Amino acid sequence: MKENDSLKQINPPKQSQRTHLHEIDFMRIFFTFGVLFNHTVNKFTLAMSQSETYYTVRTLRVMFHYTRMGFIFISGVVLTLTYFNRNDWPAFFKKRFNGSLWPYLTWNGLLMLLMIALGSTDYNFSNFGNKYLTLVMHGSSFYMYYMLLVMQLYLLFPLVVWIFKK
Q: What residues does each domain of the chain span?
């Protein structure tokens, strides 16, 4: 046995890290900008009168709806690539929900308080609890629906992995 071979047995080569897929980073950025464009156009058209221009802008905006589904798909791909061969689901849930549930709850509350401070007629202290619960359960304000959707994906993800492995 050569000396070099014996050194390999004593100090085996380290397993390489997973390859970083820059293509996924590009797709996440691409879809993110598409979603932001869509939401920005929505805010502008709310301020427009219903004219030919309004309908033209709303029609053009529909072309970018694929970015929402694309972003959700890419999120699922990243989850699958990262966690497919891991089976520590309690650690998965702890990491995923600590990174999304608390910010989701906090931002809904802070944005509601900001809307009250700005004098929005849709938000007030008299029904804060009920309105907050409705917003959190439905993700229906402040474009928070994606966070709610992702947390639902997290809940189903172990089942999806199990199905694919079977």
A: 18-83, 87-166
Alpha-carbon gap, residue 87 to 152, rounded angstroms: 19
Burial level of 153, CB count in 10 A (0-12/13-18/19+)?
middle
Q: How many CB atoms lie within 10 A of CB 115?
A: 17
Cα(93)–Cα(154) distance, rounded to whole angstroms?
7
Residues 105 and 144: their CA atoms lie apart, in Å, by: 10
pLDDT number for residue 11: 54
pLDDT digits (tens, 9 = 90+) for 103-117: 999 999 999 999 999
What's the average model confidence in pLDDT over 86-114? 94
